[in-house]
Design brief:
By secondary structure, the chain is of the alpha/beta class. 44% of the residues lie in helices and 12% in strands.
Length: 745
C-alpha cells in the first residue's frame, strides 16, 4: 500500500525558477560567456586534473564507471566557463544552451536541496492485515508486524525532519554540485543517481569532486548506484538489480529528488511511476516455498512427466494456439472458438476448463499455476471425467498433488523462480535438461501464455484473458462458467475487488486491480522477451490492453486455410519428446533437501539480528547485510534454493520495519518500537527451522497435522494463534445438466 502516490516529476523544484532567486545570468553576462569560455581554456589544467583524480577514485570504488568514461568522447561540443565566483558552468555549443542559468551554480544547487528537503515528503509502502486462510507463519508474523505498525503514531515527515533516509532517488545529476550539500544536510544510506545524458555525467567528472565524495560514502558503508545513459526500457532492470542485491525493502521507502527536468528525465520518471512497485510485488514467501517444494517432491516420487529441452516440429510450432481464460469477454468469442476448435491447439486456463466443458469446446491443455488444494475441486466438479482423459496438465512443479491426480498426462515445468528448481539442477545429474518456466504468476493466464511460448509455440491468440471487466458491467466471468454462481465460488472478494481503471484492448476503459495489472505486465514482459524469435501473439480479449500484444477481433481472424490439428500426434509428442518421467526415491529426495545446510544459514541470520541496534541507519545497513547474504546464496548454484526460500518473507518484514523506523522524528522512539519487530523476526527464523524439517511432506492442507493445531510455536512475546479451517472453493456442488461432454460446432 503506497501512502503517498506522488511520483518523481511531481516534486520538481525547477532550477530555472530558482535561478531567479540566486541571481540569473543577465543579458550582459550572456554576452561575456564566450569570453569566459576562452578564460576557462587557460584554466583547463584544473579541470583535467580533477577528471584524472575522479577517474582514479572510480577505479577504486566503482570500476565499471571508470571503464565507461576514462576514454569517453562526448557526443556534443561542450565548453566550461566560470563567472566571478569561480564555479564551473557548462554551455552546449550546438544550441548555446547553458546548464545552470545563474551567476552562482553552487548557490542555486544549495537552495534547491534545501527546498526539497523541507517540502518533498517521504514516500513509504506498508502492508495491511492479511487473512491467513490455511495456517502460515509468514502471515502470522507479518500480521503481528502490522499490528505494531498500526499502534505507532505516524507523522508526515520530510528528510530534514528526520535527518536521514534509507534511500534517495536522484533524477538528473547535472554537474553534481547538489550532492555535496545533500550529504552535508542529511544522512543517505543509499543513493541512486539516474543521469540519462552521458555527456553531462562526463562533464561532472571535470567539475565536481567525486573522489572526496566516494571516499566519504564507502568509508561510512553507505550505498551508491550510478546509472548513466539508460533508456526507459533499461532503467527498471537496472533498478531491480540494485534492489535485489541490497534489499528490495529499500524500494518501499524512498525520497526522490529531481535536479533538472527534460524529455529524457520525464520518460524515465514515467517508467518509475509504472514499474517501481514491481520490485517489491509478488515476492513469494517462506510457507509458499515449503508447500511448493513438497508438491514438487511428490511429483518426483510419483514419476510424473516434466518438461525437458526439445524442439517442436515446425508445423506444430506454427499451429494456432488459443490461450483461453474465463473472463466475461469470452462469451463474445464462443461461436468463433466452437467453429475453429479443430484448427487450433487449445489451452484452458484455470476455471476456463469448466467454461469450455459447458460451451462444448475440448481443450488440449489445462493450465494451472496455483499450489492450493482447492483447485482440484474445479476438476472434481466436471461431471464427465472422460473429458479429462486426453488433456495435458500444463503447470509449474508447485501444483498441488490433489490436482495432478485427476489428469493422466502431465507437462510439468520446473518453476524457475522457486527453490526446488535450483535444488534439483545443483544436485541431480541430468536435471539441467529440465525446461524452466518464468513469469507464470500471479494468475493462471500467465501460465497459459508463458507455458505455450516456453514449449515452442509461435502463434498465440488470447481469449477471455481480461484482467478485469468493462466499466458498468457486473460479471467477472463467462456465463458458461458454472463454478461461479450462488452456490459456488464467490467472485466478489479477494483478488476480484477492482480499484484501478485501465485502457481497454478495443478502446474504452476497464476496471482492474493491482494483481490483475501485474498479470498483464508479466504477460507483456514474456511476450517482449520473444520479440526476436519469430513469435506472433494477439489479444482477442475485450479486457485490458496489453503492451507489445496487438488487439485482434475474432471476426478478423480467418483460419479456414489451416488444416485440422492432429491431436493424437500432439499428445504423443508431448508424452514422448517434450517431457520425460523423473522419479526419485524418498531417501534420495531427503538427501537433496539438506536440513543441516538450512539450519546453518538461519543461525547466521539470528546471530546478525541479535546485535544491539543504536541508530536508524545501522538497522538499515543490517537489513542490507542480510539481503546481501541472501544475494550471496543466490550466486551459489548449490545454495540458491535457500536464497529463494527466504527472500520474500524477509523483505516483507524489512518493509514493515522500515515503515516503523521512520514513523516519527524521535529516533529513540522509533528504535524502541522496531526492536519488537526484530524479536518477531528472530521467532520467525526459529519457527522456519522447525518447519523446514517437515520436508518433503509439508503439502498445503495436510501440513496442518504437523503443527498441533497452532500456526508455528509459542514464544515469550508471541503466542501462536489457532490453525484456521481451510475453506472449500465450492461451497455447494450445483446440479449440472451436462453429464456427458459433447463437442459443439
Amino acid at each position: 500500500m503506497l501512502e503517498n502516490k506522488k511520483v518523481p516529476c511531481d516534486d520538481v523544484i525547477d532550477i530555472n525558477e530558482l535561478a531567479k532567486i540566486t541571481g540569473p545570468l543577465k543579458a550582459e553576462d550572456l554576452g561575456k560567456v564566450k569570453e569566459l569560455i576562452e578564460l576557462q581554456k587557460i584554466m583547463s589544467d584544473g579541470l583535467i586534473n580533477r577528471f584524472l583524480d575522479n577517474i582514479e577514485a572510480f577505479k577504486k570504488y566503482l570500476p565499471d564507471i571508470a571503464k565507461q568514461f576514462e576514454h569517453y568522447r562526448p557526443q556534443r561540443t561542450m565548453d566550461f566557463f566560470c563567472t566571478s565566483n569561480g564555479i564551473p558552468n557548462l554551455m552546449f555549443v550546438d544550441n548555446n544552451d547553458i546548464l545552470y542559468k545563474t551567476s552562482d551554480p553552487f548557490e542555486l544547487c544549495k537552495l534547491q536541496v534545501e527546498n526539497c528537503l523541507k517540502t518533498v515528503k517521504i514516500k513509504q509502502v506498508h502492508y495491511p492485515h492479511e487473512y491467513d486462510w490455511c495456517g502460515q507463519i509468514h502471515h502470522r508474523y507479518l500480521n503481528e508486524f502490522v499490528s505494531i505498525d498500526e499502534k505507532a503514531k505516524r507523522e508526515n515527515l520530510t528528510p530534514l525532519d528526520i535527518g536521514s533516509v534509507p534511500c534517495c532517488v536522484l533524477l538528473g545529476l547535472g554537474l553534481g554540485y547538489e550532492l555535496a550539500y545533500l550529504y552535508e544536510r542529511i544522512e543517505i544510506a543509499n543513493l541512486i543517481i539516474i543521469e540519462p545524458d552521458s555527456d553531462v555525467f562526463f562533464a561532472s567528472l571535470h567539475a565536481f569532486d567525486w573522489a572526496n565524495l566516494l571516499e566519504f560514502i564507502f568509508t561510512n558503508n553507505y550505498g551508491i548506484n550510478i546509472m548513466v545513459g539508460q533508456t526507459p526500457d533499461e532503467l527498471f532492470e537496472d533498478m531491480s538489480t540494485f534492489f535485489h542485491h541490497h534489499g528490495r525493502f529499500l524500494s518501499s521507502f524512498w525520497w526522490n529528488y529531481v535536479h533538472y527536468s527534460n524529455e529524457k528525465i520525464k520518460a524515465l520518471s514515467e517508467i518509475l511511476i509504472k514499474d517501481y512497485y514491481r520490485v517489491h510485488a509478488a515476492m513469494g514467501f517462506f510457507d509458499d516455498h515449503l508447500f511448493g517444494t513438497s508438491h514438487a517432491c511428490s511429483h518426483l516420487e510419483k514419476g510424473k512427466n516434466f518438461v525437458i529441452e526439445h524442439t517442436l516440429p515446425e508445423q506444430m510450432a506454427n499451429t494456432p494456439v488459443f490461450v483461453i481464460g474465463s473472463g466475461p469477454s469470452l462469451d463474445n468469442d464462443i461461436p468463433f472458438l466452437r467453429k475453429n476448435q479443430d484448427k487450433a491447439i487449445i489451452i484452458a486456463c484455470g476455471t476456463a476448463i469448466d467454461t469450455l466443458y459447458h460451451a462444448g469446446i475440448k481443450p488440449d491443455f489445462y493450465a494451472c499455476t496455483e499450489r492450493t488444494p482447492q483447485i482440484s475441486e474445479t476438476l472434481e466438479a466436471i461431471p464427465d471425467k472422460k473429458f479429462l482423459e486426453d488433456i495435458i496438465l500444463l503447470a509449474g512443479d508447485v501444483v498441488h498433488p490433489f490436482t495432478v491426480k485427476y489428469i493422466k498426462h502431465t507437462a510439468i515445468f520446473a518453476k524457475g523462480d522457486e527453490p526446488f528448481y535450483w535444488l534439483l539442477i545443483s544436485r541431480l545429474v541430468g536435471a539441467n535438461k529440465l525446461l524452466p518456466v518464468h513469469l507464470m504468476n500471479p494468475f493462471v493466464g500467465n501460465m497459459g501464455v508463458s507455458g505455450a511460448l516456453t514449449l515452442g509455440f509461435k502463434k498465440l491468440y488470447l481469449f477471455g484473458i481480461d484482467n478485469g471487466k468493462k466499466l458498468n458491467t457486473s460479471s467477472m466471468h463467462s456465463k458458461y462458467t458454472k463454478l461461479y454462481n450462488a452456490d459456488g465460488v464467490d467472485d466478489t472478494k479477494g483478488n476480484y475487488i477492482l480499484s484501478n481503471i485501465k485502457e481497454g484492448n478495443f478502446g474504452g476503459e476497464i476496471e482492474s486491480s493491482m494483481l490483475f495489472t501485474l498479470s498483464g505486465q508479466n504477460i507483456s514482459s514474456i511476450v517482449k522477451s520473444y520479440k526476436d524469435k519469430d513469435v506472433l501473439v494477439y489479444n482477442c480479449s475485450d479486457g485490458m490492453k496489453l503492451e507489445y500484444i496487438p488487439p485482434l477481433h475474432s471476426y478478423d481472424l480467418d483460419l479456414s486455410d489451416y488444416p485440422n490439428v492432429d491431436k493424437k500426434t500432439l499428445l504423443k509428442f508431448m508424452d514422448e519428446e517434450a517431457t520425460a518421467r523423473l522419479q526419485l526415491s524418498r531417501d534420495e529426495i531427503i538427501k537433496l533437501i539438506s536440513y543441516d545446510t538450512y539450519d546453518a544459514v538461519i543461525d547466521k541470520l539470528i546471530k546478525l539480528f541479535s546485535r544491539p541496534i543504536t541508530s536508524r541507519v545501522q538497522l538499515v545497513q543490517l537489513m542490507e547485510t542480510c539481503s546481501e547474504i541472501n544475494t550471496t546464496l543466490n550466486m551459489s548454484l548449490e545454495q540458491r534454493y535457500l536464497g529463494f526460500m527466504l527472500e520474500g518473507s524477509l523483505q516483507s518484514m524489512f518493509i514493515m520495519m522500515s515503515h516503523v523506523l521512520y514513523h516519527t522524528k524521535d529516533e529513540k522512539t522509533c528504535l524502541k518500537v522496531v526492536s519488537k519487530m526484530v524479536k518477531l523476526l528472530i521467532y520467525f527464523l526459529l519457527d522456519s527451522k522447525a518447519l523446514y524439517r517437515h520436508l518433503p511432506d509439508y503439502e498445503l492442507g495436510p501440513h496442518q497435522e504437523y503443527l498441533d493445531g497452532k500456526v508455528g510455536f509459542d514464544h515469550e512475546e508471541s503466542k501462536a494463534p489457532d490453525m484456521p479451517l481451510i475453506p472449500k472453493l465450492i461451497e455447494k456442488k450445483a446440479p449440472d445438466e451436462i453429464t456427458k461432454f459433447v463437442k459443439c460446432y
